[in-house]
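Format notes (please read before filing issues)

Several people have asked whether sequences and structure tokens are stored in separate files. They are not. Every record keeps both together, in the order shown below: the sequence lines, then the token lines. Line labels are part of the format and must not be stripped during preprocessing.
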Amino acid sequence: MFKFLFGRKAGTEPVKETQRETLERAIGEINEIMAGLTDKPKLTVDMETGGLTLDLPDQMPDEALALPAPADAEAPAADAEADADAEPDTEQQAEKPAA
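Then the structure lines:
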């Protein structure tokens, strides 16, 4: 349990992972993650560079629970401005004596 505190025994070297094993492990992890998603992203392979890109939706399902909707983020700011404009008018009316 405390092997990490006391170090490794002399002569024991970590097993190095080959490039093939690294790629197989990484692709396996990606496949596991994508299998659990409800909205599947589009995976594109660039044949010139060998790079992978994902076309993800603007908002993932777990982010929808944590973040406000983009339209809702603008609405409170507009309401705050409207309230700020309305407050001085009510104060001015209260200061004026009734005729």
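For reference, the curators noted about this record: The chain has four helices and two strands. The helical segments are 3-6, 19-35, 61-66, 70-95.
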